[in-house]
Amino acid sequence: MGKLLNEQIVSTQMLCKDVFIMTIRSEYVASTAKPGQFVNIRCGGLDAMLRRPISICDVNKAQNTFDIVIQVKGSGTQKLCSMCQGAVDIMAPLGNSFMLDDKHKNICVVGGGIGTFPLLYLLKASQSTNKTALLGFRSGEAVVLEDKFRATANTVEIATDDGSYGKKAFVTELLEETIQSQKPDIIYTCGPAIMMRKVAAIAQKNGISCQVSMEQRMGCGIGACLVCACKTQKGDDWGFSHVCKDGPVYWSTEVCWD
Amino acid sequence: MSDNIDLSTNIAGVQFDNPVIMASGTYGFGKEYSEYVDLNQIGGISVKGLTLKERKGNKPPRIAETPAGILNSVGLQNPGVEVFIKEDLPFLKKYKTKIIANIAGNTIEEYCEMAEILGDSQVDAIEMNVSCPNVKAGCLAFGTSPKGIEEITSAVKKYCKQPLIVKLTPNVSDIKSIAMAAEGAGADCISLINTILGLAIDINKKKPILANNFGGLSGPAVKPIALRMVYEAAHSVKIPVIGMGGISSWEDAVEFILVGASAVMVGTANFVNPTIPIEIVNGIEKYLEHHGHTGLDEIIGKMDLND
Ligand SMILES: Cc1cc2nc3c(=O)[nH]c(=O)nc-3n(C[C@H](O)[C@H](O)[C@H](O)COP(=O)(O)OP(=O)(O)OC[C@H]3O[C@@H](n4cnc5c(N)ncnc54)[C@H](O)[C@@H]3O)c2cc1C
Ligand SMILES: Cc1cc2nc3c(=O)[nH]c(=O)nc-3n(C[C@H](O)[C@H](O)[C@H](O)COP(=O)(O)O)c2cc1C
Ligand code: FES
């Protein structure tokens, strides 16, 4: 259950141009958050009045802290990243979470850009014996948290659009190669919609179950305003479910990708 | 709460414990916010707009943030009035907060049918939404002329067992004549304002942000317009008026009461701060105490224009 909390910022550090990692002390979030959930943060001011949803990237239960990684996009994330100390007003943890199953010995995460961040906590929380992380970024300068991914996954492969780091490829190409050598039991993906749609198609073609973390503009973050619609299958029909409450995580086959 | 101050307000025979009501469409069916706020402390909840049959709503994106406001185009997504009564109303009735059913239709007959169905339910009042800017057929069309308002209000009133609140649109040039038409046709109360039709652009894509192109503006940006309209409406009718539009603090709520609102509705501010309704209730009470008043009635409509 999400709570309205006023929590202390421990630190905010720049990871690369326009990307910051913020550590927040919160016993409640650290002890209850599940991979895939997000926090809805009040940035403040009349140009970023609405709260901004940001995924939980990592949790440190021993220290009672959790991390979020924020990419500056507009005024809200700009304000957020300039907060280095003091308190933040958050609603957390919100949303459902990735399904982790001990039966899955071999898991693969596929992330693109800011979508890579929530996958780190997923990898840490998973008990699987073989974990593969396939991460896609625009260029080498945008690659962040590589060491943390290497510390928790057995295999980490990085693709960049311009080839300035790792392999010059789309991350979906890495996925097709990975499936050739060792078929994962489940794929988890988060990133741009076109990327996830492709990942979902690859998973379906290969008969692998797949979970996707969807993104949508939000109002309330808790299921009351109905703005964060995502078209999903409802039996033979379809309907709009709500990313903040019914998601952000869906089975790839639930989502209507049209 | 102190014992000597009476925050209750009477709207067409329905006694609200306090004048702070949650605006339709911003509070779902109450359940989501019940984890954050004690619903017993809220005067009332106007539920998400209901239609006769289920509506899926508009394509996303359905929201765009603009300076001090938001544009939405939800398109009245809801499960339909019968499902609401069966599955959502029982939860709400566990609380003492008053429940207002907000209804919207494509035809006058649909509004009448919904009012009839709700007559046998436990809702405390009906709010007729003739002002939703986000659906193509009906709805707003009834709300933009005195004749349209008159026709639909008198028809629906015949089917109402509960008091009928008519929710007005700000997308008109003369709110007074619209308010008077609603009163003349038998409305028990009017509420205003619904959202103002607006447009937000993504300059990189050279396209509107909302999939539905246009949307309804709400939030602090609309408050001065809403206040002026509530003032004008309240001064042209004798029935009670519920005021809303951009209320995000107790001071805002007091402004609406001073210009003539017997109760206020809070919408967009809930998204920013879920405890805002309680802060507004407490703030109004302190204000009354500070100014030596014992009841809300002593300040309703007590703002006079300058000479
Ligand atoms: C479930 C979820 C998890 C997210 N996790 C992260 C994360 O871990 N790290 C991160 O950097 N970003 C994340 N985002 C995206 C982040 O919420 C947006 O980048 C941010 O809201 C932009 O706000 P702004 O004021 O800086 O930008 P502006 O462009 O000024 O924002 C204007 C409006 O558009 C909305 N908006 C703009 N872009 C997006 C977007 N991509 N998704 C949703 N709403 C958007 C804003 O919330 C705001 O209402 C996540 C989004 C969702 C829905
Ligand atoms: C997301 C959203 C959905 C809304 N849905 C409805 C609705 O279903 N019926 C209705 O009468 N008004 C609806 N409204 C209008 C509000 O009830 C209210 O009139 C308006 O938002 C102005 O108040 P505010 O500035 O406090 O939000 C909606 C507003 C928002 C922001
Ligand atoms: S953001 Fe309000 S329902 Fe999802």
UniProtKB/TrEMBL annotation, chain A:
Under the heading Gene3D superfamilies, the entry gives:
Dihydroorotate dehydrogenase, electron transfer subunit, Nucleotide-binding domain of ferredoxin-NADP reductase (FNR) module, Translation factors
Q: How is the cofactor bound?
A: Binds 1 FAD per subunit. Binds 1 [2Fe-2S] cluster per subunit.
| Protein name (Swiss-Prot/TrEMBL) | Dihydroorotate dehydrogenase, electron transfer subunit, iron-sulfur cluster binding domain
Q: Where, in this chain's numbering, is [2Fe-2S] cluster bound?
A: C220, C225, C228, C244
Recorded GO MF terms:
2 iron, 2 sulfur cluster binding; flavin adenine dinucleotide binding; metal ion binding; oxidoreductase activity
Q: What are the FAD-binding FR-type domain coordinates in residue numbering?
A: 2-120
Kindly state which keywords UniProt assigns to this record, in alphabetical order.
Answer: 2Fe-2S, Electron transport, FAD, Flavoprotein, Iron, Iron-sulfur, Metal-binding, Transport
| Membership in a protein family | Belongs to the PyrK family.
Q: Which organism is it from?
A: Ruminiclostridium papyrosolvens DSM 2782
Automatic annotation (TrEMBL), chain B:
Q: Which residues bind FMN?
A: S24, K48, G49, N102, N129, K167, I193, G219, G245, G246, G267, T268
UniProt cofactor(s): FMN
Q: Does the keyword Oxidoreductase apply?
A: yes
GO cellular component term of the entry, any: cytoplasm
Enumerate the spans annotated as Dihydroorotate dehydrogenase catalytic domain: 7-288
Give the highest taxon in the source lineage.
Bacteria
Catalytic activity, reaction form: (S)-dihydroorotate + A = orotate + AH2; (S)-dihydroorotate + NAD(+) = orotate + NADH + H(+)
Alphabetically list the UniProt keywords: Cytoplasm, Flavoprotein, FMN, NAD, Oxidoreductase, Pyrimidine biosynthesis
Which top-level enzyme class is recorded in the Swiss-Prot or TrEMBL entry? oxidoreductase
User: Which GO terms of the molecular function aspect are on file?
Assistant: dihydroorotate dehydrogenase (NAD+) activity
Q: Does the keyword Cytoplasm apply?
A: yes
Which family does the record assign?
A: Belongs to the dihydroorotate dehydrogenase family. Type 1 subfamily.
Q: Which InterPro entries match?
A: Aldolase_TIM (IPR013785), DHO_dehydrogenase (IPR050074), DHOD_1B (IPR033888), Dihydroorotate_DH_1 (IPR024920), Dihydroorotate_DH_1_2 (IPR012135), Dihydroorotate_DH_cat (IPR005720), Dihydroorotate_DH_CS (IPR001295), Dihydroorotate_DH_I (IPR049622)
Where is it chiefly localized?
Answer: cytoplasm
Subcellular location, record wording? Cytoplasm
Question: Pathway it acts in?
Answer: Pyrimidine metabolism; UMP biosynthesis via de novo pathway; orotate from (S)-dihydroorotate (NAD(+) route): step 1/1
Described purpose of this protein according to its UniProt entry: Catalyzes the conversion of dihydroorotate to orotate with NAD(+) as electron acceptor.
Supply the name of the protein. Answer: Dihydroorotate dehydrogenase
Originating species: Ruminiclostridium papyrosolvens DSM 2782
- Tell me the residue numbers annotated for binding substrate: K48, N72, S73, V74, G75, L76, N129, N194, T195
Cofactor details (free text): Binds 1 FMN per subunit.
The record's active-site residues are C132 (nucleophile)
Q: What is its EC number?
A: 1.3.-.-
Which GO terms of type biological process are on file?
A: 'de novo' pyrimidine nucleobase biosynthetic process; 'de novo' UMP biosynthetic process
